[in-house]
């Protein structure tokens, strides 16, 4: 009778045997080979063989992660970044229906994101920043219900921010900065219960903060709000203090006016406040200079009353890169 150790060894060998002979789903093999043929990526030299998940002695293709589902292997992650990919967004990617991560950042992809992107229902991370993508942000991204991270910054997207992004219940990080986006930021984004970081800086956006937070309980988890270098106007409403999780508020280089509400100084974890280069008036409430966590407050380039120091005179603390980690 076989010992317990022998039985365990047999089970392990059987599992390894099954995994080694699992076939990659034909759909995924076809999709990756279409991508390989159409773009001529620099990584092609490491994409050896016909099977992206590896075949026999050949390893998986660089940047391709696979997992076993039943009798087949499927592609679950595609990470090919900073290799100067040139050409349009590869539509064949949208046939990889088991993708949870798609990272093509820091390349030279052009043209629009195809509406077929909405097929990737299991996607959690979509990183397309630092490319040359154009046209509007497709509303079909709002169909990716599992998405937690969306990076579309440093491209040439135009048009308005689609309100369909508010249909992403798991979204935590939304990066839209450095594009050509116009119009108002959809107030519907405030209904995202898990959103921690919103960066829409360096665009051509208009509107007011009051419009953005007009819903009760807006942005309950938001820590970092970057709206700098746009055409936003109006004053800072005292209701902004209802966003009690805020740590960074970056409103520089807009067209904001009016006084700074006293209530903003009571956002409990406020650490960095950038109000510079607007049209604010009045004085900075003393409470800001006594805030226990406020490390930096920039207010130069406004119309404050004489005697207001252009940079907060509260206790200066050394700021490290870790303070900006998200």
Name its key features.
326 residues; 22 strands; repeat; twelve-stranded mixed beta sheet; LRR_dom_sf; four-stranded parallel beta sheet; alpha/beta; single chain; disordered C terminus; elongated
Topology:
Layout lengths: L3 H17 L2 E2 L1 H14 L24 E6 L2 E8 L6 E3 L12 E3 L4 E4 L13 E3 L4 E2 L15 E3 L6 E3 L12 E3 L4 E5 L12 E3 L4 E3 L2 H4 L11 E3 L6 E2 L13 E3 L4 E4 L13 E3 L4 E4 L13 E3 L4 E2 L22
Subcellular location: Membrane
Pfam families: LRR_1, LRR_8, LRRNT_2
Protein name: Leucine-rich repeat-containing N-terminal plant-type domain-containing protein
Structure notes:
- It is found in: Membrane.
- Residues 1-22 form the signal peptide.
- Residues 26-67 form the Leucine-rich repeat-containing N-terminal plant-type domain.
- Belongs to the RLP family.
- InterPro entries: Leu-rich_rpt (IPR001611), Leu-rich_rpt_typical-subtyp (IPR003591), LRR_dom_sf (IPR032675), LRR_N_plant-typ (IPR013210).
- This protein is α/β, with parallel strands linked by helices.
- It is 11% helix and 23% strand.
- It contains 3 helices and 22 strands.
- The chain has helices spanning 4-20, 26-39, 209-212; strands at 23-24, 64-69, 72-79, 86-88, 101-103, 108-111, 125-127, 132-133, 149-151, 158-160, 173-175, 180-184, 197-199, 204-206, 224-226, 233-234, 248-250, 255-258, 272-274, 279-282, 296-298, 303-304.
- The strands form 4 sheets. Strands 1, 2, 3, 5, 7, 9, 11, 13, 15, 17, 19 and 21 form a 12-stranded mixed β-sheet that branches. The chain has a 4-stranded parallel β-sheet with strand order 16-18-20-22, with no helix packed on it.
- Strand 2 (64-69) and strand 3 form a beta hairpin.
- It is elongated, with a radius of gyration of 25 Å.
- The N and C termini lie far apart (57 Å).
